[in-house]
Design goal:
With about 110 residues, this protein is α+β, with helices and mostly antiparallel strands. The chain is about 40% helix and about 10% strand. It is built from three helices and two strands. It has a two-stranded parallel ribbon with strand order 1-2. Helix 2 (about 50-65) crosses helix 3. The radius of gyration is 17 Å and the shape is globular. About 0% of the residues are buried.
Amino acid sequence: QYNLYFDIKDTRSRIKLRKLKEVLCLDKYDFTSQMINHIQNIHSNESDILQLTDFLLGSLSHFHRRIPGNTIKNAIIDEIQRLARNPALTSTPLCENKFNLFLFMPRKAS
């Protein structure tokens, strides 16, 4: 069973969470919704792990969007590259068990 916590982003977050739970459970053929024990929106300042996640995602986003000038984020990226088996910070295979990156590249609208 999983407990999932998400950063509150907007006033429709609760509706989106219900749909996410439904989609995740159906994807795993969990028609009784037992796989997800609890799903909830929280403010990131209520959770140290959510703050850390926001910071790491912000650093990775900064790197991949090639935004110059943030010394702290650059230092974090340098350390991740040093420690990772994937110094280019490209998408990792699903079998990677320590640090996974899944980069989303949207298709251009026609």
